[in-house]
Amino acid sequence: MSLELVCPAGTPSALRAAVEAGAHSVYCGFRDETNARNFPGLNFSPEELTDGIRFAHRHGAKVLVAINTFVRAGSPAAWMRALANAEAANADAVILADIALLDHAKRHHPKLRLHLSVQAAAATPEAIQFYAETFGVKRVVLPRVLSVEEIAALAKDITVETEAFVFGGLCPMAEGRCSLSSYATGKSPNLTGVCSPPEHVSYSDDADGTTAKLARFTIERFAPDEPAGYPTLCKGRFIAEGKTGHWFEDPVSLNAAELIRPLAKAGVTALKIEGRQRGKGYVAEVVAAFRQAIDAIAAGRDDPDTARRLAGLTEGGKQTAGAYKKTWR
Amino acid sequence: MSVRLTLGPVLYNWSADRLVDFYARIADEADVDRVHLGEVVCGKRAPFTDAIWPEVIERLEAAGKEVVISLLALPSNVRERKILAELAGEERLVEINDVTGLALRSGRPFVVGPFVNVYNEMTAKFFAERGAGTVCLPVELPISAAVVIADAVPGIDVEVFAFGRMPLAVSGRCYHARLAGLHKDSCQFVCDRDPDGLDVSTLAGQPFLAINGIATMSHGIEAYCPPLYELETSGIRRLRLSPQTCDMVKVAAVYRALVSGSIEPNEARERLVAIGLPGPLVDGYTRGLAGATFAPMA
């Protein structure tokens, strides 16, 4: 069976671009704190989602709606509304992380197909089967802590589909279990759907170059001739034991294009591309490259050198296969 | 009834000898109601301390403490899952720190640890219905959320992480190993050099975080020191004190004085600082601010 390619859409035009470039599925979220890419200028109104899903379905593609933050204590309305709106818009599945929402969806939206978000960080057969048996979850998005060998072993022990990230931004921390951003800024993926939020980012220049801060913390310094990147906390440079370095993760992107075949062999159902914050040009290019590779592999042909074609699109041109290779640890 | 004090599990790689001495003193001298023990951060550390626990538990229980066995936060291989399954069958109370633990323990009494995402009353209720008697909330959750949860789910004890460096993240990668130029699989257990974690500062020299194996801790020491009226009206029933190498008997004494109303928050903070801590006090999370914030700076 061919792999399903799951592609990001931060905007209606990115959704159309992804579908036209060959996405089997597109994932997106509402324009509020119910999804983990709650950045200004991104995401969908309920009407835009309805239109987007209509467009995708006409082209034979599915739409998965991410409602993958954690319900704020005492204020569940926005999350409940998001579930109802996703169902009304005819979404093919919702991607959830919070047990509260999974429970609510099972009781009140029994026809809605449930996927377990990477934000739920379910990395063991016991945890994944718990979500499958308790809430009827049909697919788990795998946390980026597993090697290909571990995924292969895991897939044998579970009864649900698996979806693995293959390209784009990379969290070195277990997703959904990281409060680094809120420690510095008060805002985090779980609390507000953002990491290292732009309103807390500031740059200052001096003779030595540019300093990038997150709230009051210096995250990175760039030489005068160096392009100043975005100060994502875990990819910053820090000092430990007198040594300066990217002690959590280098400013790299995930590129597991060369692992498509091993991941398919490991039993993975779907490959996921990160990047709802990216423009439609980028999305179209990455989606087309992956679709070509998947089709080639399905037809028994050689991979048309996708890894190299995509290398130019990674953050600062630097890439990693992340936890899929054990040496990353 | 007065708020109870819980000593959290030791989150760092302390030697077996150090742990035995530590818990002997806790048993004899620390005014805490409940004591958590066991390895939470890294399954690779567990074999070094396995042998000490029966005696440690016996001594703590003989001293009248309630013992809770804490489970791993990120079980990641067959061996660790086996250990988890074994411990989840414990007669004593266990603390789950991952949904894996819930799957194995559901239906029998357990504690939900701060590594599990209980962000709201609905999730808390879900856990309560499956056997959770206490939920120690995630460190980034404000007290306002704890109040909502305590009010909506009276059947559980809401516990707040009140003292110590906060576990902010866990990872598949070991940062102690990475810093030493090693991989997790051949780490040489270098995390044992840093019993309070390894300080990480920014390029501007600001102390910021602390590396603890696969966990990343805050550099600042959480010090939730509420006035008595706030505590009494909040519905919070337990405060968690997370072990650092400083004198935890004294830390417990400060919190006991605070929750019994014999000292004010400012005095509690002054006494904590006087104990000699590995970082400055912070309490921003409790008030819905950045976790690294401290009251006078707000």
Number of domains of chain B: 1
Chain oligomer state: heterodimer
Largest sheet of chain A: 8 strands, parallel, barrel
Kindly report the name of the CATH homologous superfamily of the largest domain in chain A.
Aldolase class I
Q: Please indicate the percent range of residues of chain B in DSSP E strands (runs of 2 or more).
A: 15-25%
Number of helices of chain A: 11
Tags for this model:
heterodimer, A: about 325 residues, alpha/beta, TIM Barrel, 2 domains, 8-stranded parallel barrel, 3-stranded antiparallel β-sheet, 11 helices, B: about 300 residues, about 30% helix
Explain what you see.
The complex is a heterodimer of chains A (329) and B (298). Chain A has 329 residues and is an alpha/beta fold. Chain A folds into two domains: 4-170 and 252-328, Aldolase class I (TIM Barrel, Alpha-Beta Barrel), CATH 3.20.20; 180-245, no CATH class. In chain A, 33% of the residues lie in helices and 22% in strands. Chain A is built from eleven helices and 16 strands. In chain A, strands 1-2-3-4-5-6-7-15 form an eight-stranded parallel β-barrel, surrounded by six helices. A three-stranded antiparallel β-sheet of chain A has the order 9-10-11, with no helix packed on it. In chain A, strand 4, helix 4 and strand 5 (114-116) form a beta-alpha-beta unit. In chain A, helix 1 packs parallel to helix 2 (46-58) and helix 1 (12-21) packs parallel to helix 10 (280-298). The two termini of chain A are 31 Å apart. The mean pLDDT of chain A is 93. By secondary structure, chain B is of the alpha/beta class. Chain B has a single domain (4-166, 217-297), classed as Alpha-Beta Barrel (TIM Barrel), CATH 3.20.20. Helices cover 32% and strands 23% of the residues of chain B. Chain B contains ten helices and twelve strands. Chain B has helices at 16-29, 53-62, 78-88, 99-105, 121-129, 143-152, 175-179, 228-234, 248-259, 265-275, and strands at 4-7, 34-37, 66-70, 93-96, 110-112, 132-136, 157-171, 198-202, 207-212, 215-223, 236-241, 281-282. Chain B has an eight-stranded parallel beta barrel, surrounded by six helices. In chain B, helix 9 runs antiparallel to helix 10. The longest helix of chain B is centred in the first third of the chain and has 14 residues, at 16-29. Chain B is globular, with a radius of gyration of 18 Å. The mean pLDDT of chain B is 95. Chains A and B meet through helix 4, helix 5, strand 8, helix 7 and strand 11 of A and helix 3, helix 4, helix 5, helix 6 and strand 7 of B. Strand 12 (238-240) of chain A pairs antiparallel with strand 8 of chain B, so a sheet runs across the interface.
